[in-house]
# Entry
Amino acid sequence: MPCRKDTKSNPRISYSRSDMFDLVVVGHLAIDLISSPKIALPKPTLGGPPTYVSLAASKLDAKVSIISEVGEDFPDDYIERLNANGVDLSGLKYVKNALTTRFALKYGNEGRQLQLISRAPPITLEDIPSSLEARAIHVAPIADELTVRAVSKLRTLTATLSLDPQGFVRRFGEHGSAFQKQWDDRYVLGQIDIYKSSLNEIRMITGLTDLRLAMEKIRDYGVGIVIVTKGRRGAAFLCDKKFYEIPACEPRVFLDSTGAGDAFTGAFLAEYIRGKDTVWCICVGSAAASFVVEGVGPEVFGEKKNVYERAAEIHKAF
# Structure
């Protein structure tokens, strides 16, 4: 279903399908300008967690939808790209006289520099249809665009609520420069079944430098599965009081890490909702991420067979 072009004041459409989605991703789509020594000609690309999460999950045959807000500057070919990959866009709203969330991402020897260029309107309680049904909902803010009330409503619409808190631990300074901030909303964390973040983000949330202690603190809020991605050093996860370290899948080439963590989440959730073993789900997430870094932006997503082949290689150790 195509997205709607209307104003923010209009009521959101109700879902009329009798069957539910496997996964719904809630957060801002974005337009990214990615630059690094490996990118000769930077150009705007489709970005934001809903892009990478939904495309990775759809490659594994998950039925995916998104809830997001974009401005009138959002390109039509981005819509076509998502539609062509089977992503439902009935929850995507164009907002008149608004801009899409845009980021400039610069990679160099000192890591990534992130600059916010523009920000779309927030996703509020009224933007989430009560008729929505999903096996899993992934909450994925990138610029603090989700309210606590919206998260609470999402909790009532699914059996599995997942969170990537990256947008909650960001603040923006002069000229949009992004910095990490402390964030410890115990009410929000208490709503979550699956938590996934980077190593730096969990340290900002818990105030702990020891990885396992930090993950245990998140678990103690009531989170069932805690996942921390560590880039090319793999991922760690805590489930049923058991702590695991999973190695990263090796890509053929490494061009751009943008969206790798989100692709990890999409693939993980696509397997998790099918009742697969959690270790296997982590391996599939790692495999999906290894394909994304082989391109710039959302250029490369492995086909299901290829993702499973890479996942099987690292699953052998378990």
In short: The first strand starts at residue 4 and ends at 6.
